[in-house]
UniProtKB/TrEMBL annotation:
The keyword Hydrolase applies. The keyword Hydrolase applies. It is an enzyme of class 3 (hydrolase). This is Endoglucanase. Residues 1-12 have a biased composition (Polar residues). It comes from the Eukaryota. The lineage of its organism: Eukaryota, Viridiplantae, Streptophyta, Embryophyta, Tracheophyta. InterPro entries: 6-hairpin_glycosidase_sf (IPR008928), 6hp_glycosidase-like_sf (IPR012341), Glyco_hydro_9 (IPR001701), Glyco_hydro_9_Asp/Glu_AS (IPR033126), Glyco_hydro_9_His_AS (IPR018221). Belongs to the glycosyl hydrolase 9 (cellulase E) family. PANTHER family: ENDO-1,4-BETA-GLUCANASE (PTHR22298).
Length: 545
């Protein structure tokens, strides 16, 4: 969540030798060299590529002889378990990752508010509201679309969502105020210590009418609205509370417009600056509120603001900072189900987005595939793009299947893709993560015989409180950061940033944070993907769309 040179300058010896990432191309706008930044937008460059025909074959066929053997149910269970390792606050009796202990028990107290709970975003000890809200929204979307496929893991997935939504209910309890961050990122990143030991300032940051943050407030509203759908049947009273709060928070976000990275620049940048503006979050939240409430006012809001808020912008990206592609896919379901013909433009945008991702159909300069078949965008923490984009591909394929439709990519040949092709592309990315790649390595900790052992994560890399009861201070943790030894605590289910360029290379090194750090928003969309493929593992049995 930052350029890690500033995180460890005073901590560590030089990082271990490794294959250096290919230098990023010039960007049309500044983005930080950070695992949590949106991918840099490179200008077109000449890159030697596989022919589209060979690449298509590579992506749609198994990468190794054993491809297709994965236990997606086990991977799903572990991907959910990861969130227990990211918990802040007082841990519940049923906590399964036992090396973790209570932390952040006084968060918010200095500001007179209870902000205990929630998730640490990655390998540090700060609670960043913007990516946490996106994480919660994507976890909920997976449950909404693929709930039946979660099978015995549905309840633990709902608990993971609730750990976030409970926190957001606290963070939005004061009208026209959203508490958006707990912890001083700069000071936190100058230490390498367990969350149980942290003694860095737990500074509280908020947005309000005088310091607007439409982006983070609207994303929080989206998370609450999506969560209300998840709990509609399981806990109707809680569901209604979430929806009521979501509507209240959205009203605040829309009335007091502005970017939170302008209001709170020193606190939230460069970790989670909003580079794409707040307009997409307003549309995104309205779409989720319409889905959750079915109120006409949100449909009218989308209709009235479609052009003004740029619904068709930046459709080749989807992540914590840019929601445009997600908006178009989410609203397209209404069109494909025959519920709203007015939003045909959103379906056209979704189709165009899919066409930028499909190998053999599009050669988009900002979406590339490695020789081993991994989708990548220039920048760090590439798996955030892999899981988020693959989730959208899978979700859209299901909407198309139910409507008996295909993706039309235009062009002289009238190229189109059936839903099965979309699913194959999404499954290929999931299989790559789980080990069907040139290194034969799973990028999920604890899954398969070979996986990352030196992940960039404070709690995982320092002996647990049970193993080392004495406090390990801010700088004392540097020895563990610099150690070449495997992490003593397995953060089961964590998916790291992974290969970040065309080499398919991965240095299992703590210091190379761009590739070795896990994040909540890598795992969140992966839950829905794994649920679906656990119930539908065999492509030969997919419907002939």
């Amino acid at each position: 969540s930052r350029p890690f040179g500033s995180d460890t300058t005073s901590l560590a010896s030089p990082p271990p030798a490794t294959i250096k990432p290919r230098p990023a191309a010039d960007s049309s706008r500044h983005t930080p060299h950070s695992p949590h930044s949106v991918a840099q937008r490179p200008k077109h460059r000449s890159v030697a590529r596989l022919s589209s025909v060979l690449l298509l074959a590579l992506l749609l066929l198994p990468a190794v002889a054993s491809a297709g053997h994965h236990d997606y149910g086990d991977a799903l269970h572990k991907s959910i378990l990861f969130f227990e390792g990211q918990r802040s606050g007082r841990l519940p009796p049923d906590q399964r990752l036992r090396w973790r202990r209570d932390s952040g028990l006084h968060d918010g107290a200095a500001a007179g508010v209870d902000l205990t709970g929630g998730y640490y975003d990655a390998g540090d000890n700060v609670k960043f509201g913007f990516p946490m809200a996106f994480t919660a929204t994507l976890m909920s979307w997976g449950l909404i679309d693929f709930g039946r496929s979660f099978g015995p893991h549905k309840e633990e997935a709902r608990k993971a969502v609730r750990w976030a939504t409970d926190y957001f209910m606290k963070a939005t309890a004061k009208r026209n105020t959203v508490y958006v961050q707990v912890g001083d990122a700069s000071k936190d990143h100058s230490c390498w210590e367990r969350p149980e030991d942290m003694d860095t300032p737990r500074t509280v940051y908020k947005v309000d009418p005088s310091h607007p943050g439409s982006d983070v407030a609207a994303e929080t509203a989206a998370a609450l609205a999506a969560g209300s759908i998840v709990f509609r049947d399981a806990d109707p009273v809680y569901s209604q509370r979430l929806l009521d709060r979501a509507m209240q928070v959205f009203k605040f976000a829309d009335r007091y417009r502005g970017a939170y990275s302008s209001s709170l620049h020193a606190a939230v940048c460069p970790c989670y600056c909003d580079f794409d503006g707040y307009q997409d979050e307003l549309l995104w939240a309205a779409a989720w509120l319409h889905k959750a409430s079915r109120r006409r006012e949100y449909r009218q809001y989308i209709k009235r603001n479609e052009v003004v808020l740029g619904a068709s912008d930046s459709i080749n990206e989807f992540g914590w900072d840019n929601k445009h592609a997600g908006i178009n896919v989410l609203i397209s379901k209404e069109v494909l189900m025959g519920k709203d013909e007015y939003f045909q433009s959103f379906r056209a945008n979704a189709n165009n987005f899919m066409c930028t991702l499909l190998p053999g159909i599009s050669d988009h300069p900002q979406i590339q595939y490695s020789p081993g078949g991994l989708l990548f965008k220039v920048g760090g923490s590439n798996m955030q793009h892999v899981t988020s984009l693959s989730f959208l591909i899978l979700a859209y394929s299901n909407y198309l299947s139910h409507a008996g439709a295909h993706v039309s990519c235009g062009g002289g040949g009238g190229r189109s893709a059936p839903p099965t092709k979309l699913r194959q592309v999404a499954k290929r990315q999931v299989d790559y993560i789980l080990g069907d790649n040139p290194l034969r390595m799973s990028y999920m900790v604890g899954y398969g015989p070979r996986f990352p052992r030196r992940i960039h994560h404070r709690g995982s890399s320092i002996p647990s409180v049970a193993a080392h009861p004495a406090r390990i201070g801010c700088k004392a943790g540097a020895a563990y950061y610099a150690s070449a030894a495997p992490n003593p605590n397995l953060l089961v289910g964590a998916v790291v940033g992974g290969p970040s360029d065309a080499t398919d290379a991965f240095p299992d090194a703590r210091a190379v944070f761009q590739q070795s750090e896990p994040t909540t928003y890598i795992n969140a969309p992966l839950m829905g993907l794994l649920a679906y493929f656990s119930a539908h593992p065999n492509p030969a049995e997919w419907a002939d769309d």
